[in-house]
DNA sequence: TCTGCCTGCCC
DNA sequence: ATTCTGC
DNA sequence: GCAGAATGGGCAGGCAGA
């Protein structure tokens, strides 16, 4: 298949909003491919050249791609940037620039483009940046304009077709069966092996029976089960009737594998997105080696934890353990434990099809209660009353935890699935507990993708520093805004546009908005937490860092009842932070 | 050798 | 991570 | 309710250029 054909199909998909229709287009496209092409196309549509558990990235994002476009089409970088701001999509910019160069462009095979992209991804070390830029530029010179659009988007990982893994899985079912009845089966195979290209190729080569060889193997990560959110204890009980309740810890999701190879115990750790974490947490690896049980796969949350005091360490510190160097040193400063909550495999047996209650029992037998080597089983309570859930929630929240997880005691472990078998209730979903601030808009940024048409995709929010008598930034906000609100915000802000940074407004250069405005419009911002910030200027004193909001979102645009004199102050933020 | 920019990956 | 939108 | 696509703060590490 020619890449050009693929690009045309992408173009058609992009114009389609009905998922049924997208599935139809996609499955017909797959039918046109040879098995090897299927494999490659499926990697490409997920913005990769290898399955996601293999760590080969393009290491090329918007800045690098802009450089490549400027080289390819002999433009100043500033002009490319201008076009990007205007069109909100570097793929569209590439297509536009390529179209202006009318000379006859060649067609390339999907396979060729795939190989060229793989080469680009593989460059590393000295001069790798310029090689990537040059290779992409050469590739774009060869391709037709519509192909340029999608090549650029593949590299950026934003194909924007409205097609994700789930839709691809449905399409694969259609390829084999003519309907979506195979979805569950394909989905399970995929989430067990985490290689969509392989699953696609196997299906096309051997049909459904091709999937039978895909089973749980210790050492190979599976996609973790995910949770839905709920807003109250009541909603949880109304969905689950009975639930196993656990504290929600603020760390990194981690899957632990242990197996035996050549008589030696092996251990591997994987992140939520199947990245290898093994070498970063030696204390957890040692713990797993000491544990009885030759082979198992378990699921848990890695979190900074001081055994002596029972104190949990904040996420901002725990995450510093995700590193390549100085591991032992950091391990001394920030010890972690893996708080386990599920067991998917034990001594040769796949446990995923057992009810959760049974998996949990086996887990509790595997890890002794007082096991001290950085491995613990998370506390569980099985309840059926709303007030029991509420009580546990209050307990966990007052202990400074994120909230709770509620799980159906009878559900299987469904890799990669996000449904109401697992429900999270976060501290911040409760209005009375969330941090809310009144801030003033200091400027806004152009939007990308589907927000391009509004000319705004985020805005910068400041609070007031009474000591320095200036506005300082505390968050960028780009979520919680409805489409008509985007329009309203843009209109309002454009009326108070200023063409230079005003005195008494303190913004770090990295956060400088595309459009600055007069500080006048007051907004209510909700957040989960106040954190120290290396970037935002709120409360910043010399070398001391400022403050920022964790997970900021718009609660209310334009509070006409409040004026700029009444917005949240740095002093108040510091009080909230210390609380 | 140091530093800033950029990217990828955690949440 | 949160949130919005079309189906 | 699902699936996808917008958007956030902030950490470490690689590379290029000073």
From TrEMBL:
Entry EC no(s): 6.5.1.1
Example GO biological process: cell division
InterPro entries: ATP-dep_DNA_ligase, DNA_ligase_ATP-dep, DNA_ligase_ATP-dep_C, DNA_ligase_ATP-dep_cent, DNA_ligase_ATP-dep_N, DNA_ligase_N_sf, NA-bd_OB-fold
MF annotations from Gene Ontology: ATP binding; DNA binding; DNA ligase (ATP) activity
Enzyme class: ligase
Domain of life, per lineage: Bacteria
Catalytic activity line of the entry: ATP + (deoxyribonucleotide)n-3'-hydroxyl + 5'-phospho-(deoxyribonucleotide)m = (deoxyribonucleotide)n+m + AMP + diphosphate
Alphabetic keyword roster: ATP-binding, Cell cycle, Cell division, DNA damage, DNA recombination, DNA repair, DNA replication, Ligase, Nucleotide-binding
Residue stretches making up the ATP-dependent DNA ligase family profile domain: 329-465
PANTHER family (alphabetical): DNA LIGASE 1, DNA LIGASE 1/3 FAMILY MEMBER
Family, per entry: Belongs to the ATP-dependent DNA ligase family.
This protein's name: DNA ligase (ATP)
Native source organism of the sequence: candidate division CPR3 bacterium
């Amino acid at each position: 298949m020619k890449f050009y054909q693929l690009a045309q199909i992408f173009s058609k998909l992009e114009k389609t909003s009905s998922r049924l229709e997208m599935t139809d287009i996609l499955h017909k496209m797959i039918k046109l491919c040879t098995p090897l092409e299927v494999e490659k196309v499926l990697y490409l549509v997920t913005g990769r050249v290898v399955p996601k558990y293999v760590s080969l990235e393009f290491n090329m994002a918007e800045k690098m791609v802009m450089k490549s476009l400027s080289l390819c089409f002999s433009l100043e970088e500033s002009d490319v940037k201008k076009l990007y701001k205007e069109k909100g999509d570097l793929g569209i910019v590439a297509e536009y620039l390529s179209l202006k160069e009318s000379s006859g462009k060649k067609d390339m095979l999907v396979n060729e483009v795939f190989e060229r992209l793989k080469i680009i991804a593989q460059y590393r070390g000295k001069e790798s940046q310029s090689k990537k830029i040059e290779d992409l530029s050469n590739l774009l010179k060869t391709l037709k304009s519509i192909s340029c659009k999608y090549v650029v988007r593949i590299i950026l990982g934003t194909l924007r077709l409205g097609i994700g893994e789930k839709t691809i899985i449905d399409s694969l079912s259609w390829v084999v069966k003519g309907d979506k009845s195979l979805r569950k089966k394909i989905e399970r195979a995929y989430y067990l092996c985490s290689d969509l290209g392989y699953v696609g190729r196997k299906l096309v080569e051997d049909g459904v029976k091709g999937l039978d060889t895909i089973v749980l193997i210790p050492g190979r990560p599976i996609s973790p089960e995910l949770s839905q959110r709920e807003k109250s204890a009541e909603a949880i009980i109304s969905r689950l009737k009975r639930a196993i309740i656990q504290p929600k810890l603020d760390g990194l999701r981690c899957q632990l594998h242990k197996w035996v190879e050549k008589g030696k115990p092996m251990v591997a750790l994987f992140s939520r997105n199947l990245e290898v974490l093994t070498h970063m947490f030696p204390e957890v690896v040692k713990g797993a080696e000491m544990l009885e049980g030759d082979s198992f796969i378990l699921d848990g949350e890695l979190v900074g934890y001081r055994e002596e005091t029972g104190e949990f360490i904040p996420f901002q510190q725990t995450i510093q353990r995700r590193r390549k160097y100085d591991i032992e040193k950091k391990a001394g400063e920030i010890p972690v434990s893996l708080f386990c909550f599920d067991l998917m495999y034990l001594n040769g047996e796949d446990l995923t099809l057992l009810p959760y209650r049974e998996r949990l029992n086996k887990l509790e037998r595997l890890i002794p209660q007082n096991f001290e080597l950085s491995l613990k089983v998370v506390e569980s309570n099985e309840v059926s009353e709303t007030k029991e859930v509420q009580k546990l929630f209050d307990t966990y929240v007052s202990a400074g935890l994120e909230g709770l997880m509620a799980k159906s005691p009878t559900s299987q472990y469904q890799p990669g699935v996000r449904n109401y078998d697992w429900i999270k209730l976060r501290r911040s979903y409760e209005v009375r507990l969330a941090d809310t601030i009144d801030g003033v808009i200091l400027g806004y940024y152009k939007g990308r993708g589907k927000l391009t048409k509004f000319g705004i995709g985020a805005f910068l929010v400041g609070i007031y520093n009474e000591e320095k008598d200036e506005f300082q930034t505390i968050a960028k906000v780009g979520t919680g805004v409805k489409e008509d609100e985007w329009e309203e915000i843009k209109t309002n802000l454009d009326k108070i546009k200023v063409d230079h940074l005003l005195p008494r407004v303190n913004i770090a250069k990295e956060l400088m908005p595309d459009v600055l405005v007069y500080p006048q419009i007051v907004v209510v911002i909700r957040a989960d937490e106040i954190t120290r910030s290396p970037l935002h200027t709120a409360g910043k004193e010399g070398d001391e860092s400022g403050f920022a909001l964790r997970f900021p979102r718009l609660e209310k645009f334009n509070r006409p009842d409040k004026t700029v004199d009444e917005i949240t102050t740095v002093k108040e933020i510091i009080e909230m932070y210390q609380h």
